[in-house]
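task queued by scheduler; priority normal; single chain, no ligands, no partner chains; default sampling; output format set to structure tokens
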Amino acid sequence: AGAAATRSGDTITVTGLDPSASGTVGVTVSRPDRTDASASIAGSALDAGIVPTFGVPVPTVDGYTGEITNYDPSSTYLFDPPPGATVVRAGSFLVVSGLTPEQTATIGVRVQHPGAAEASGSVTGTAQKTGTAPRLSKPVPTAHGFELRILNYDPDLDYTVTTTAGHVTRDGDRIIVTGLEPGEEAIVIVSSSNGGTAEATSAVSGAAAPADGTDPPGDGDGDGDGNGGGDDSDGLADTGAPVGGWIGLLAALLLGASGGVLLIRRRRA
């Protein structure tokens, strides 16, 4: 019921069948001075297409990733991204790139499967917002290292702290470097991010207090206290800067030389 047949030349098209349903078409040929002749043919409609379903998109710096939760390796997947966006599929996972910070994009996905009608769906995600680089205070030398603070510390962010020499720990906004020889310098690299915010990185150079009580490199006020004369009520002046220029390059080279592995997003200061 509801099916219909039409003819165009020698082609007969049947419509109105449910997916996978079968139907029989009868064809009668009439010619003058001849008896009618009839024949029939049976056929089936295509199976229902596989409508794609998706997991929750995960933001990235310039787009997002997502998973086709009902992925079928025997199907062909075609994508319709908006202008400027790019889609790459690796198995059941999609990687969307080319978005600006906080831009939202909907990707159309068409699924073609042998013996089935084409099915379509879409997934929408948003790129991460731009991160704010940590502002680092001027390091204060200690006997075997130095201390500094994250002046714009945000407890909602995740922080990664590394050093090119010695050992580093973080307690809230306070960063402590230990294990340096007297007067030895080290660069501290601090990165902040979370699921919705792109990683941002800053670095600052500090040194342990010299054994003879003279000022360490970069202090120069002649009082031997390593404070450099700056004061922000905690003895910590705001000197940290986003990674870039010589300090970012030096940090990367020193970490590479010591066998460490660190990905630094270089930014212009």
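post-processing summary
- Confidence is low (pLDDT under 50) at residues 219-238, 254-269.
- The first strand starts at residue 4 and ends at 8.
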